[in-house]
Amino acid sequence: MTGARDRVLDAYETLLIDHGPGAATLDAVAAAAEVSKGGLLYHFASKDALVAGLLDRLRERSAADADAIRTSPDGAVAYYLRTSAPGGPVPGGVTRSYLAVLRISEGSATGQAIRDALAEVDADAFAALRAELDDPVLAWLAQLVGDGLYLRTLTGTPLPPGLGVEDLLARLRQHFPVADP
After folding, report:
1. Residues spanned by the domain of 134
2. I need a surface site. Which of 46, 83, 92, 103 has the fewest CB within 10 A?
3. Helices 26-33 & 47-71, crossing angle to 10 degrees?
4. Is residue 107 part of a domain?
5. Count of domains in the chain?
6. What are the pLDDT digits (tens) for 22-78?
7. pTM (predicted TM-score)
8. Ramachandran area for residue 108 (φ above 0: left; ψ -120 to 50: alpha; else beta)
C-alpha cells in the first residue's frame, strides 16, 4: 500500500506532467492524492517543501537507477540506452519524476535547486557509465546518445523507422569498448 506522502508526490507529478505547474496547486494536489489539505501540509508544509520533496524523490530514484546501470548484466551502456529509448523499460519511476521536475524548472523561485538536482542526476549516470568505460569522452558520448533517446521518450517522438536501440549498440560495439552481453 502506498503511503500518503508517496500518493501526494505521485499526484503532484501527474498534475505537473498532464496540466503544468499552474494546475498543481496545493488544493489540487491534495484532491488528486485523495488526502485532506491538512494531510498534505503534514508531509509538505508549503509549495516549496513539495518541490523539495519531488527533488528528493528524483535524487533517490536516480541513485537507484545509477546502481542498476552499474550492475546490469548487459553492461552499463546497453542498460542506459535501452532504458532511455521510447518504449524501453522504465526504471523505477525516474522518468516521471524527471519530467515533472522539468515542468517546474522554468520560472521557478527554486530554479537553482532544480538545476542542482538535475546536475546530480546527470553526474550519477555519468559516473555509472564511467564504471564501464575508461575513456571519459566515450562515457560522455554514450550519455549524450542516451540523453537524445530520453528526450524522444519524454516528448513521445518515435525512433526513425527501421532503427532501434539494438542497432545503436551493435554499431557502438563495432567501434568502442562497450560490454557485450
Report:
1. 55-175
2. 46
3. 60
4. yes
5. 2
6. 899 999 999 999 999 999 999 999 999 999 999 999 999 989 988 998 899 988 888
7. 0.79
8. beta
